[in-house]
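Most newcomers find our protein records easier to grasp once they have seen one. Sequence and backbone structure share a record, each on its own labelled line. To make this concrete, we reproduce a full record directly below:
***
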Amino acid sequence: MSTHLHQDSAAAKVLVLDDNDTNRYIVSSWLRRAGHTVVEAADGTEGLSLLASAPDGELPELAVVDVKLPDMSGFEVCEQIKADPRTASLPVIHVSATAIELADRTQGLHRGADAYLTEPIAPDELLATVTAALRYARARRRAERLATRVSALNSSTLAVYAAGDGETFIAAAAAGAATLMESAAVAVGLSPDNRTLHLAAVQEGEGAGSDRTEDMEPSVTGVREDSRLLDLLTERALGDRTGTETVILSGADWRDLTRREGGGRADVFPGQVALTLARTKRRRPAVAFAVAATALAGTDDRELLSQLAQACALALEALRTRSEEHALVLTLQRTFLPDRLPAVPGVDMAVRYEPAADHAEIGGDFYEAIQTPAGLLLAIGDVAGHSLKAAMIMGEVRHALRAYAIEGHDPQSLLKNLDALLVRVRPSMTVTVCLVLVEPGGRRIQVANAGHIPPLLRHPDGSTRYLTEHGPLLGLNLPHPPAVSHHVPEGSTLLLLTDGLVEVPGEDLDESMEMLSGTLSRSRAELDELCDQLLATFGKGKTDDIALLAARFHRAHEGGAPAGTPPSCA
């Protein structure tokens, strides 16, 4: 006999409902001799009251109900049992010595009974019917519970894959384990950058057993940097292997381990603990789960916990890979940007480069400041798209710009040459670039704009205006107009930026640019402070990279930054 079949046929708590004392005694005696626990009621009201007052964990598993009762029929009792969600799955066996016709039996079955016996009833027939009804009801409940838990497993898996950082991930993992196993739960794992060890705990009564993982808010803490908790947990169960393993620890062993290395924050279990570890690649940190050992009552429980652990290990590995790739390409992108700004008498400069959120792809924003035979050339631009390809093209454009500028080309010729380069070597790619040539002495600038956000000029009196002259994007093989000259009085500030600073999806760009103009007009801050202020006001939570270059013009004899000063980058 299989394990499930044996469990499904085991003795149960049975309600016997009959107004005839003799019949009730006989049926109860047969059931007790077979190992069942029996509770008795003499009429429908008493029987339904008994069911209503019983705690959920102490409800009878089956009811034997006489059809002819003094206060209501057995059919009505059955209907009320089946109508109550707490008892809807309770099997009901009708018995009767008088309602024995086909119509009676048919009515009983139609009104919810699971079986119908007519007297005289043989003891073996009654016990066999009880066993069959219990077997079916238990198998059905087990299947329904398994379906619910598989749904919870799917929800938990989606939650861990949706996590964008280590803290969110470990919280989703702990909540998933608590939901799936209907137990207090602990999850331990390293952040994707392998710098912070996170521990999340769900205590009994704080969401364990909830139907919705997303409703839980486990307490997540960063364990001290020198903690060996994850290493010790891995040694206990998984070693250096891949896959999943589960071991049972005593409560004392678990408390001693977690108090010493985890600060005691994982002490949420009253007894033995089931520890599960999972890893998908060798020499990678594992992810650890702990639930009450009593939650692993059977093979299904172990398999479900193992599947959750494996899903979490895969999700964490994907998150770790994305983090590593993003750090790599961001490092590569930064190598394309200048590592220092030239020192130019009469011009102070500050720059900021702010990458988009960690989960976003890198973009092609860039800035440049070059000393040329004609003066100081300031440039800012943006390659269309967000990808490693965009960053690579950004590097190509910036290096080409430097080469052309050192040769002494004027701004219009620079745009023409860059456009020809893109059309030849990067067809179908477009780039926006704004060039500003600061003539020697710093009192006049030449602006040539290829489809970029216009530079913003602040005069010493606080008035501001955008220098809106522009031509087509680079990469379209279209002619570019000559540069336009503008006078810049002493004390003026020029701001060059990429659209990531002011563009918000679904909002009017003109309004954002007007707000930026107003902020610059009111600010009297030094350049570094000004850049930080603008990023704090406009740059939070943006999904696009931000490049910002600010220049302030003053008397040449006041001096500038020392030669070779590196740019001030965020």
